[in-house]
Amino acid sequence: MDKKRFFNKIKLVYLVLALFIALPGCGGSTYDKKGEEAKPSTSYEENSKVSEKKDITIAMVPKSLDNPVFLDALEQGERVGRELGVKVEWLGPMQSDTNVQIAIVESLIRRKVDGIVISCIDPIKIKPVIDKAVEAGIKVATFDSDSPGSNRLFYCGTDNYAAGVACGKALIKEVKAKGKDKQALDLLIMTADKESNNLNKRLNGFLETARAGGIQLNITGTLYCNDDVNIAGDMLENHIKTGDTPDVFFSTGGWPFVSPPESLPGFHAWCKDGGISILVDTYYPVLEAAEKGLADSLVGQNFNKMGELSIKNLYKAIKGEKIPSSFIDTGLELGNKNNFAKLLQGKQRWEIK
Amino acid sequence: MGDKIVMKDNFFFGLFRKFSIYSIRSKMTICFLALGLIPILIFGLISYHLYLQNLHKNISSYSEQVIERVDKNLETYISDIENIMRLRSNYYFQQYSKLNEAGDIEGNRKYTVRIWETFDILKQMKTDLIDIRFVSSSGSTISCYGRYWVDISKEPLHQELINKKSDVVAIQPPHLNILNKKVFSIGQAVNRNVKGDTGIMAIDIDVNFLKKICSDIKLGETGFVFFEKDGKVVFTPQSSDKNGFSNTITQNPKLMDSKDGSLIDSINNTNYIITYKTSAITGWKIIGVSPKAEMTSEVTMLRKVFFWIITLIIIIILLLTIYLTSVLTNPMRKLRSIMKQASENDLSIYADIRTRDEIGQLASSFNKMMNQIRELMDKIKDDQQKIRVMEMKAMQELIKPHFVYNTLDSIIGLLEQNRNDDAIDIVDSLGKFFRTSLSHGREVVFIREEIDHIRSYLMIQQFRFSYKFDYLFEIDDEIYNFKTVKLILQPLVENSIYHGIRNLDKKGLIVINGYIKDDQIIFEISDNGEGIGEEKTQQLNRIMAGEEEVEDQNMYFGIRNVNERIKLNFGSEYGLKYQSKVSVGTKVVVNIPQIGR
């Protein structure tokens, strides 16, 4: 048998084998219709499954995207992240919404990010998902608004009670200066919601300090702006226009002054008439409004530091390094009519419109 | 067989025979029902068939319209989304994109906020929008949920758009978005660079939008619409597709091979009408599934209505038939009842039917017939009475005391002469003569008996007249067993003896012939006696023919009696006829019908 004939025979054997394998598959479309009952017709796949990771990713979760207050923290966080070689993400509900915030954290768990820094809208509701993330091996910290009962690594932000105390002291000073310290004063409060831990601490600090200082405060109303800078100014202006004018206005945040000062003529007139206005936050629009006479005292937070220290310390934690403390204080900035202009000079104008 | 009408060579008649439908009423009922129902049934079935054809056409057309509507809704919505995606050319987006790629954090704040505001406004305007994403070629993403990083090369939309023109829209079938919401996405390429790298703008739409456009349509009670692409189910409303048929349907070879069309598929022994169309904008097949039975439920309804209408028509026709047949057959039944009564010998009956139709005419004829029957019966009674009387007279004429005394004297003479044998013969003949005369009271006897009777009589008379004459019988054997009125020959023979031969100087001869001629039995009694004059012969024949009355009832009594009895019993065409010549003899011819054999 020569070599060529041998190979021909081998080819023939392969051909027969190939036919045996292929033929059973040539039976046309004989699908069994009855065998496919009650099987889900569609299954959904997630779009962006996190693939092999190259960079460290830390997601910052603000209370809402539409509150420019947090932009300082975002930008500083991004700067620090760039220095550290960390990808910084910024994910949050468009408007303050705990359920969306929870869903976002869930998505971050699914995407297996390395770290999460979150400003908690509702510290109680957010706690389980923070703990879930921690259990999933994600380093979690809070900024601006804490969830103290959770397993987060640290809280980076203002000492909110101290901020409230500072506001209370400023009130005492203003009241005494205006000779109203002997009379009971009607107080109008503005805050984002009932749940925010940071805001409640500020409020408590304010009320306790003022009362301890001998100021009698009757809370005549509380305005909840839901962290929405677009509605806060209108809420305040409308309330003042009702005629139910307070003696003191205290806001746990700077929301109402993000609107142009000209949009608050009623409130401006109330201030001129001797109304005492004290707010937390010293960012540019708030200082600008204060300088135009809409506030007597301001107690500011440092969002830049919040962004910076949150990312730096979380990076440390991701790298396995020790965190200095479970509370990282970003300090306070005190403002009054004497230094509003000076403080304003040190701030960058918000160019968001 | 009663009044059963024998009918043949006809289907209906055969049917009637088969089911033993005897009465005209039943036949008329069946005929009316058949005449009423057959056109209705034929009309109904043709209408039903045409309606069914039309319905199937309409269902098919309706399903196509439904699918078309879904396609239009989808197309309109996607066109809107395409308009929204023009944002990618917007100044703010372009600035954001450039600054983001440049890494200008501070400078991009304004554009970031503006983009989020724009996204928010769009979401509020279009509530089905879940997310709007702007993904740069590096994977930096800004969306309604913030800014994050993705591996763009693994984005399905990017994979589809990378090799397409910039203005082409790509559709990603339903999937889970970043927040695990079920969405389908529409995307377009953004900022393609010289290397061919491209970012994408994607809009995630809630799958409930598909559910909404699917649930806006109605395909029967449980019919539904779903979407398919490349043999896979893109979206199916789970609440409608409880049995998970969508997967099965997508494997149908006809559906796989064509873009548009409709077919009927049987799944789990249920027929489904499947109509499909390929959407030009999405490339998805929009498939409408509706159980055939549901779509044709109108037919079931129609069938019920048809059934009840037919039932109603049958009842109406039945009632009308009963009424009409009653109207038509009542006179007949009444006539039948009258006829039955008449058949039971009630000849006094009268059919009181005053219609002008055939039944009325029949009743009138019946009444006439009954009158005739009554008249005939009366006549028969009269004739019978006459016959009885004439018979009695014939008997009296026959058994004349003179004849009896003379015969008895002759017997005594013979006995005195010790001619016992002769005496015995005469006694025997006399006995036979009387016996056959009586004939047990019968009016009609066999010809044999009549001949025997004559034979006895002639024997007695031959002896009494001392053999002055001879007699001869020439009777055909074939006539013996026919019947005749009794005692018709004896008076004729007696006349031959007494008026023809008695006074002859020579020996007389009486010849009795009997034969059949022209279906009649003919008897001829001939003698060679004195004969009768011609005038008298003619007179006799006129009297026999009933053309002349006799002045005296005793005149020719014997032959008149015979003649009348024959006519009464057999008809006027029968009777006697004389032929005679003086000094030659006389022949009397008797004709009677052939009866009784």
UniProtKB/TrEMBL annotation, chain A:
Residue intervals passing through the bilayer = none
- For this protein, what is any one GO molecular function term? carbohydrate binding
- Main subcellular location of this protein, as a coarse class: other
InterPro entries xref list:
Bact_Solute-Bind_Prot2 (IPR050555), Peripla_BP_I (IPR028082), SBP_2_dom (IPR025997)
Compartments annotated for it: namely: Cell envelope
One Pfam family of this chain: Peripla_BP_4
Q: Which residues form the Periplasmic binding protein domain?
A: 58-322
Q: What does UniProt give as the signal peptide span?
A: none
Recorded GO cellular component terms are: outer membrane-bounded periplasmic space
Q: What does the similarity note say?
A: Belongs to the bacterial solute-binding protein 2 family.
What is the name attached to this protein's record? Answer: LacI family transcriptional regulator
The species is Ruminiclostridium papyrosolvens C7
Automatic annotation (TrEMBL), chain B:
Its main localization is membrane
Entry's localization field: Cell membrane
Q: What residue intervals traverse the membrane?
A: 30-51, 305-329
Q: Which PROSITE patterns match?
A: HAMP
State a single Gene Ontology molecular function: phosphorelay sensor kinase activity
Output the PANTHER family linked to this UniProt entry: SENSOR HISTIDINE KINASE YPDA
Write down what this protein is called: Helicase Ski2
Question: What is the originating organism of this protein?
Answer: Ruminiclostridium papyrosolvens C7
Q: What is the lineage of its organism?
A: Bacteria, Bacillati, Bacillota, Clostridia, Eubacteriales
